[in-house]
Amino acid sequence: MANPRSSRSRRANKHKRIGLRWGIYARLSQDKRKGTDDEEFNVNNQVRDLTKWIHERDPEAEIVEIYIDNDIPASGRMTKRKLRKRFNQMRADARDGLIDAAAAWHLDRYTRRPRELEDMLDIHDEHGMLWHCKTGDIDLATSTGRAMARMLAAWGAYEGDLKVERMQLTFSNYAEEGRAHTGGMRCYGYTDDDTELIPHEVAVIREMREWVLPPNPRSVRSLCRMLNERGDFTTTGGMWQPTSVVRLLTNPRLRGARTYHDEIVKENAFPRVFTDEEFADLEAYFGDPERHQAEPKRKSLLSGGILICGKCGNNLTSQPSNSKQPGYVCRKTNKGVGCGGLRIQAAPTEADVAAKVLAVYVSPKVRAEVRRRAEEQADAGSAEQLRNLRERLAELGRERARGEMTKEAFAAAENYLTREINKIRASVREAQKLAGLPRDLPMSPAALAEWWTSEETTLEERRAVIMSVVDHVVVGPTLRRGFNGFEPDRLTYVWR
After folding, report:
1. What is the C-alpha separation between 66 and 32, in angstroms, rounded?
2. Which of 129, 154, 378, 450 is deepest in the core (most CB within 10 A)?
């Protein structure tokens, strides 16, 4: 993103402390109003007061970005390291010269970790970034100000560690007494207070066990697909994923045990879903390193229906050439599927798809449309719709069996209900694609490209971004016989 001001002008304004481009940072460790209509009430108060304070301090200020991390502690030990994405984005924007100064309510809103404070000091030294606090404003340009900031960060880290120790002692005592951990998501199969079982969910759990265990084991991924299409979602109304199924079926709570830090501290603390023998079978099965994986993890970026053969319409799959070069091919099977007559190189194809997808995805309009589709597809009401349609279909069958409906009327009604069920199932499958879409992706082209190439970005996250904007890419046959290079004209994009 081009900087509208010259470096000389920016340095002059920073020296005068007027006419700066400001970022506002607001954070709350625990939002007790989360999930209510007043969610983010406190951080919004911070933003409002900081906006007024900035304009009093700098009448010519331009507030270019507001960064909010709600319900996220700043101490590294307070949680299992919730990522403060907006804080990281603010530091990246400061390095890129997109903001000249930032304001927060207090230094501990920025950080309670000395390591992060040193990074802020480096940004100040290297880029001239000004870090301000409404209460207890500290001048990081002076040795005294830096010393005070380091002392506050050290005390903030101490307070965070002390609170963790108190919480760990409390949770340990609760666990030894057999009391359930308060807060967090409800465990599937149990009521909110963990004192009673929910019959319908218990039946689903037992069905899960029968699905994955011998003598007829089926893949966990196919189990997730079946549950999601049927409308049996998680406790939050979300899609089942293989990891969440395995985590549930290996949770000792299902045999009544209370654990703390993966150690059993009390038996018979909860109502049982499984006997000890039934649960032992699950532990042995999922703990077996030689367990056959019916559906191995996807290892290619564009397989699974993204690339389509331009000759026959079959999905392209990943397959190396005789010289071990990665590529995508149309395989011809024994059942007559596929033509076996098309191949394209993997690396340049993936690079072309990534470039075009990221170029489209930086558009705010496109992102808004993706979010709209994700919210529509994530509607938990589809579960109730599926149940109602199936019950109506079953009732039609009973009416037909009793002779209360003609054959023609039954066929017409059955066809209609089947079409409606298939529509909802298609909606569920679409939601599964969008479920893996990362939240709070970078906005600028450079930051988005950096996220794409980062080692921390998973293959499934990249695939989710692609599938959120691309329906499929048709790969046409080569027009240059014997040519081994990449021909971008062979790719035809079909956007969503």
Report:
1. 22
2. 129
pLDDT tens string 56-93 = 999 999 999 999 998 888 775 544 457 888 999 999 99
Q: Residue 348 corresponds to which amino acid? A: P
127 and 48 in a single domain? The answer is yes
pLDDT given at position 26? 94
Would you say residue 193 lies in a domain? no
Kindly state whether residues 138 and 68 are assigned to the same domain. yes
451/445 Cα distance (integer angstroms): 10
The pLDDT tens digits for 409-437 are 877 887 788 777 777 766 666 665 565 56
Please, which residues have CB within 8 angstroms of residue 292's CB and are 6 or more apart in sequence?
217
Q: Return the CATH number at 59.
A: 3.40.50.1390
Count of domains in the chain? 4
Whether 174 maps to a domain, the answer reads no
**426 by DSSP, 3-state: which?**
helix
Q: Quick one: angle between helices 459-469 and 346-361, nearest 10? A: 60
Same domain, 448 and 328: yes
CA within 13 Å, CB half, 452 = 24
- Structural domain including 393 reads 366-436
Cα-based torsion angle of the residue sequence 216, 222, 223, 224 in order, rounded to the nearest 10 degrees: 170
Which tokens is 155 given? 């005390």
- Cβ–Cβ < 8 Å for 112, 141: no
Q: What are the pLDDT digits (tens) for 234-269?
A: 988 889 999 999 999 999 889 888 877 667 777 888
